[in-house]
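#struct-pred

JT: dropping the chains for the assembly here, can someone run the whole complex?
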Amino acid sequence: MSKDTLIEVKNLEVSFPIINKKLFRTETVDLRAVDNVSFDVKRGETVGLVGESGSGKTTIGRAVLRAIDPTGGEVIYHGSRNENAIFKVRSNGRAMDFDSAPVQVHALSGETLRQFRPRMSLVFQDPYSSLNPRMTVRDIIAEPLVASGLMTKREEIDERVRDVAARCKLNLEHLRRFPHAFSGGQRQRICIARALVSSPDFVVCDESVSALDVSIQAEIVNLLKDLQEEMGVAFLFIAHDLSVVAQMSHRVAVLYVGKFVEYAKTEDLFFNPRHPYTHALLSAIPQSDPDIEFDPIRLDGEIPNPLSAPTGCRFHTRCPFAREACAESEPEWRELAPEHFVACHFAEEFDFSRPKS
Amino acid sequence: MEEMLKVENLSIAFRTDEGLIEPVQGVSFSVKEGKTLGIVGESGSGKSISTKALMRLLPGTAILGDDTKMTYRAKSGEIINIEKLALNSRKTRDLRGGEIGMIFQEPMASFSPVYTVGNQMIEAIRLHRDMNKKEAREYAIEMLNKVGISNPSQRIDQYAHEMSGGMRQRAMIALTLSAGPQLLIADEPTTALDVTIQAQVLELMAGLQRDLGMAMIFITHDLGVIAQIADEVAVMYLGTIVERGPTRDVIRDPKHPYTQGLLEAIPKLDTLTHRLSPVPGDIPSPHARPTGCPFHTRCARKIDGLCDQQTPAEISLGEGRAVTCFLHSSEGRDVA
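RK: done, full complex below.
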């Protein structure tokens, strides 16, 4: 494992019990939302996670953060290199050591987990429902510091909040206002400031730009990139729109019904996709050029329910290139080209490459 | 091609606690038979309430401007002045649904959760078509089949929450079309959907429009979607139309700085740039409307002393194109 690795996810599994109460017996079925997923995130890198709704992308993000508990697999954190990180100088002087040895995040609990929390955070999709309408912007941004007990002095907290708010291009005079006074783009900047206030190493952005207008979306993407350069934070960028993910990420993973189907450097995945699903996703994005013929690959129906996931390759029910073998055996996860992983029996036969301009 | 809907000088004002606001000011557009008009703009630009005014669906605090004129030619050939209709009249009821249908962004919020999808469809069909319950049910099944819902005779007895997002939006389209409107208003119908489902729904809507010969008003903030579906496009900013024209011409050669900005902000598929180009700043609140050209606070090419003082008039550029910007007027050229 290279020295730059920050987060390592190995064979992550999340399943939810579906309890079906009958008259005299109770049936429990496991819904496997995430099935055997492995990837890593380097320091200061953005990894994109793309998939349709129901593919399990949000579940992966939350399981890595321990917002929900994974049912199997490992999440390993390789320690901060950020010397200025405020979580290293706890005001009460009882800082735990998470930096000298890899931390098994999936096994943390109790007070240890609580102390670990400031190192990772989350930006949600909908900036209208993720801000408490009764708290001022200053209190919202300060909340992670207060909740984790990182800072207790009011002046210290104020200084830190003002610093982060300025970085996120918020007007400092607005800190005393309540969230209702802000537009969608400004609210999303408040959410980003809240996520970054504890100077985390790793932030999960769960569909953080999907609900915004294109003009504002571009601004938030640029802001996230600037913050990454300044603060060296790593992002797991979750979205369903491949075109936005591609502009933002260094590497991209494509997810389908809880399993990775393709994982590669952005440029390889974007211009030379090897999996039919990635190709279909790319073709479905409408282009603003009226002369480019819009001819999306028709994917019939919708993403299957993970409770009754198809046998063999999970995509075979909608894949335009499916053959008999696809329904029978599950494709192997293999490295087709350096750092280009694909799960498809016939990936060598397809040429989906697109011209660059 | 005849104009079936003509809107002139549409202005809408709202009485609020903080005073009178005017989110729509002097908007004019028209829809031709069987054609699609796309309306593009950011949230807060007034695109949704302009179309709600067409159905007289505005809340009671809204005031329509005095010289607002909305003329609509009904299926029977009768000319209706929408702004003069009494709100609870028979004619307004026929207009809503029967003449003009509407699809909203969030299908979950538009269906009632306590009635089955079929129940709601049958109600609409019986209101607008002369059918008994049994015929209406058969017709509803036929419509569900037409929008590509598999197994419609069972789906019709399901509730909206039992369906997935894409299927709900299809059911919404079936419900709207079952009343047989000749104009369909689609308010961001694909914004909440995945790209693959969005492609399916766009294809479905274009196909249905061909088959039924409907006219359509398609509202979205994504110029990519507009490029694929609309014949003509109107770009709205803060309650005014800043540019209009045939879609192809507007996208090939945008004249207004705002249209140019919106086009540049879309992430491109053929290049990986390291930075996107946003339209800087936020859309101003309707309480603090800028003087002069509403866009001057965010415009990179504003002319000091002109754009922030005077309101530009619409300038016709020929071939149905028009732009509201001083850069294309004689005043602007004199200064520059």
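JT: nice. Chain B touches chain A through 51 residues (CB under 8 Å). The first strand of chain B starts at residue 3 and ends at 16.
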